[in-house]
Design a protein that fits this description.
By secondary structure, this protein is α+β, with helices and mostly antiparallel strands. It has three domains: about 90 residues, Rossmann fold (3-Layer(aba) Sandwich); about 60 residues, ATP-grasp fold, A domain (Dna Ligase, domain 1); about 130 residues, ATP-grasp fold, B domain (D-amino Acid Aminotransferase, Chain A, domain 1, 2-Layer Sandwich). The protein contains 13 helices and twelve strands. Strands 10-9-8-11-12 form a five-stranded antiparallel β-sheet, sandwiched between helices. It has a four-stranded antiparallel β-sheet with strand order 4-7-5-6, sandwiched between helices. The protein has a three-stranded parallel β-sheet with strand order 2-1-3, sandwiched between helices. The longest helix has 21 residues. Bound molecules: adenosine-5'-triphosphate and magnesium ion. Magnesium ion binds next to loops. The site of adenosine-5'-triphosphate has 21 residues, from strand 5, strand 11 and strand 12.
């Protein structure tokens, strides 16, 4: 198949004058090369398209692909992860991972919490601070946890995210409002163990790949999987596969509640009573083979990276009723190989 690859490269935006912090969530060349190579190993013809602007140019030049493998995080707005998928929908080009509307909702953690609550998936009590005057209206007991409502890669999450009193709440909310230009999510602090759950497949076929506990050590910020801990994960964090059926079940329920597709991650933490609580869903999880949580988990379960990428494509094709086309192609490839052998 002809597969296009869309992404937001750190180096592309750094060259345009963006700061390291602004590009923290974006991808590096190694990730793009790894995905391209995995797709090529499965016989696909891969074209590296690039970012939204480059995709728009290619589409206007009349270029089309059988499928576009999109991992672009987007730069602007809370629906930024949904922008390329929306454009691909308009051109009727299949793309793996969740539908456009799900990508838009999932990046807003307050909207996602509301959806989860309506499906009886346990979430921490929460309030949204949209402007300074909302701070005084927060009526939840301390300790609390504050974070930007729509960031990833733990941006805005530091040792000061745990809040013990009204004064800390006011100071930190003001700082986050000013720095991130978006509402602040205030949640009950969940003091327990933390997990990330790898998900593969859609609808009835969705399954948990594994539950991975995130353990902090040494100089790590003890409050959680902060931005600093994530950057220095090799020294501060260890990852372990664990058998936690309640966590797995919660993740699957959350995945189904939003109708997430193909692959991703659900983050879970335990509350003071030791019960698992939904933190967030990542329908467009990082795919760096070395440091992305989903890929670390796949290594722990001996699920090769190339197989992960192949499974994502297959899940997408199946949803579009195109998986038989792949089988036919594979059958043709087999015949060709056999013919070559017999000629030799
Ligand atoms: N209510 C909470 N109580 C305790 N810790 C929390 C809470 N919310 C978030 N955290 C901590 O902050 C970390 C990052 O939060 P969250 O997963 O919401 O952010 P993110 O930036 O979207 O993460 P990712 O890198 O997975 O995209 C969590 O992994 C957890 O350690
Ligand atoms: Mg997270």
């Amino acid at each position: 198949m002809r597969i296009g690859l869309t992404y937001d490269l750190k180096s592309y935006y750094l060259a345009k004058g963006f700061s390291q912090e602004q590009v923290a969530e974006l991808d590096c060349e190694e990730t793009i090369n790894s995905i391209a190579s995995a797709l090529e190993k499965h016989g696909h013809d891969v074209e590296r398209i690039g970012c939204l602007e480059q995709l728009m140019q290619a589409l206007l030049q009349g270029k089309r692909w059988d499928l576009v493998f999109n991992i672009a995080e987007g730069l602007y707005g809370i629906a930024r992860e949904a922008q390329i998928p929306g454009l691909l929908d308009a051109y009727q080009i299949p793309h793996p991972f969740s539908n456009t509307e799900v990508l838009a909702v999932a990046l807003d953690k307050s909207l996602t919490n509301a959806v989860m609550k309506s499906y009886q998936v346990p979430v921490a009590d929460f309030r949204v601070v949209r402007q300074e005057m909302d701070i005084a209206k927060v009526d939840l007991p301390f300790p609390l946890f504050v974070k930007p409502v729509a960031e990833g890669t733990s941006k805005g999450i530091t040792a000061r995210s745990v809040i013990h009193n009204q004064q800390e709440l006011a100071v930190r909310c003001r700082e986050l409002l000013e720095e991130f230009h978006q509402p602040v999510l205030v949640e009950t602090y969940l003091p327990g163990r933390e997990f990330t759950v790898g998900m593969l497949g859609s609808g009835e076929e969705a399954r948990v790949l594994g539950v991975m506990e995130v353990c902090l050590h040494g100089a790590a910020d003890s409050q959680g999987y902060t931005f600093e801990n994530k950057q220095k994960y090799e020294d501060r964090v260890s990852y372990h596969l664990v058998d936690e059926p309640d966590v797995a079940q919660l993740a699957l329920k959350a995945w189904s509640a939003l109708n997430c597709l193909d692959a991703g991650r659900v983050d879970v933490r335990m509350n003071a009573a030791g019960n698992p609580v939904f933190l967030e869903v990542n329908p467009l999880a990082g795919l760096n083979p070395n440091y992305s949580d989903l890929c670390i988990l796949c290594k722990l379960i001996d699920f090769p990276y190339d197989q992960l990428i192949h499974s994502i494509v297959q899940s997408c094709l199946k949803r579009h009723g195109l998986d038989s086309a792949i089988l036919t192609n594979a059958a043709c490839l087999c015949t060709l190989v056999q013919t070559d052998v017999s000629v030799a």
